[in-house]
């Protein structure tokens, strides 16, 4: 029986960029606006956070912004993030603090998914071993080294596993070496499968298009992960949620409303 009670999508920032970043070898010259999301999962055994968004200080401190978002070195550009979109602000609206987060599950370690670790530094942090190795080796420019260089409570994992009843980690490499998605069994509604960046857009799922950024150009690995997620959705009757699709996000319940 699932231990999950509620699920909140949290909008932590928005990012405008070339669509080809989300769709492999298509969409060049088309600008899209993408949500940067985290997901708060309340369970009877504690609170889980899937992804943590960006590091606010890198976006708002001029020196740090110049260091990490130098347009010459990082042409993707900087997201837009307000004080109200920071994780502690979301938590406060629910009467919580960062200390109330028990476990952080990172789908991968790119800057827009792992940068906010500094906001929840007391929680146990789950990440795939291959992902942490790729990040530390700076496998691509979207890994910001100091996002994951702090004194965090790492729990490095391999394979698929159950975090607790009703929450299961799913291996979906391709976008990055150790990318992980998450299956969440809700108490009343359909299961939710958080694709993470295995599928930025609904288009990635519908047309089986790999993300535009790939680990070692492994398009085959990324498409296999998309097909795996679609098969899982079929087997479980679950809803498969893409991660950076603004139209899809706008169809979800708005914080502080929740899915259950």
UniProtKB/TrEMBL annotation:
Coiled coil: none
GO function terms (MF aspect): hydrolase activity; metal ion binding
UniProt xrefs under CDD domains: AHL_lactonase_MBL-fold
Record-linked InterPro entries: MBL_superfamily_lactonases (IPR051013), Metallo-B-lactamas (IPR001279), RibonucZ/Hydroxyglut_hydro (IPR036866)
Similarity comment: family membership: Belongs to the metallo-beta-lactamase superfamily.
Keyword terms of this UniProt record: Hydrolase, Metal-binding, Zinc
A Pfam family of this chain: Lactamase_B
Biological source species: Pseudomonas panipatensis
Name the record gives this protein: N-acyl homoserine lactone hydrolase
Every Metallo-beta-lactamase domain range: 35-244
Cofactor: Zn(2+)
């Amino acid at each position: 029986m699932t231990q999950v009670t509620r699920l909140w999508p949290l909008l932590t920032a928005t990012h405008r960029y070339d669509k080809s970043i989300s769709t492999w070898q298509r969409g060049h010259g088309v600008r899209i606006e993408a949500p940067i999301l985290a997901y708060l999962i309340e369970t009877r055994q504690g609170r889980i956070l899937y992804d943590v968004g960006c590091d606010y200080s890198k976006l708002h401190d001029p020196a740090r912004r110049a260091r990490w978002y130098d347009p010459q070195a990082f042409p993707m550009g900087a997201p837009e993030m307000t004080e109200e979109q920071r994780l502690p602000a979301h938590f406060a609206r629910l009467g919580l603090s960062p200390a109330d987060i028990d476990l952080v599950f990172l789908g991968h370690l790119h800057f827009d998914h792992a940068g906010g670790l500094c906001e929840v530094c007391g929680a146990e942090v789950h990440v795939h071993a291959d992902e942490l190795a790729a990040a530390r080796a700076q496998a691509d420019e979207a890994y910001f080294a100091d996002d994951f260089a702090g004194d965090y409570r790492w729990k490095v994992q391999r394979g698929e596993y159950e975090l607790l009843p009703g929450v299961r980690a799913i291996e979906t490499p391709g976008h990055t070496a150790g990318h992980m998605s998450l299956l969440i069994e809700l108490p009343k509604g359909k299961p939710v499968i958080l694709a993470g960046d295995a599928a930025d857009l609904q288009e990635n799922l519908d047309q089986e298009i790999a993300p535009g950024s790939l680990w070692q150009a492994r398009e085959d690995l990324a498409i296999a992960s998309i097909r795996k997620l679609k098969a899982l959705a079929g087997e479980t009757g679950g809803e498969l949620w893409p991660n950076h699709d603004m139209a899809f996000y706008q169809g979800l319940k708005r914080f502080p409303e929740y899915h259950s």
